């Protein structure tokens, strides 16, 4: 059993989550009830199952466009929403006439996020427990009355080679004090909960890419004001995707390009995993 557990952990560290889940399922079938309880306490086992369950949910959302209400459209960007009194679910779609590498760099270089994401005061990478996973602490600059908010998330890229895409799964881990060996700081104010979110980046050609965004968050307010819903759906997501496009257009000579050149092995592994043959 120990050898198989170590194999699962290594697959997890290398972000072969589908293979890790298969090995985990096979191992569980061989164990006694007591051994299964012991295995269930392994943090990697919980995260593997949670991530793949979340990936399936998000892929279902991405394949469904019928139940979303269009909110705004600008050139090659469309935003959508679903909202209730207690939650906001938003979606954005953008066709980008740029290579995929700038997009991958934008979402991989955490220390540069605050330079271009409009609503961020700061973003700190608390740790990197696997190749494509980051534990990120966000600090937001939001309009009144949603002030003094932060969020801690696990963000992991799941390659989907059959679609030449990577699904970046983002979910809150604020219910933990420690996650995969990384200490999670206590909130100083009110912590936003990201129930789930994703960024799906797809290679369409040498100079054609697509990005899809879905997010459901809870700002922990008794009643979400209409001004906030409008801000997020009509402005926040649209501005975010506009910023993505602007940063991609300014990629040559940028800090993002410098980061890619400084770490070619990481980006070469990403494009290999999503089954595209391009030079980094």
From TrEMBL:
<dbReference type="InterPro" id="IPR023393">
    <property type="entry name" value="START-like_dom_sf"/>
</dbReference>
<protein>
    <recommendedName>
        <fullName>START domain-containing protein</fullName>
    </recommendedName>
</protein>
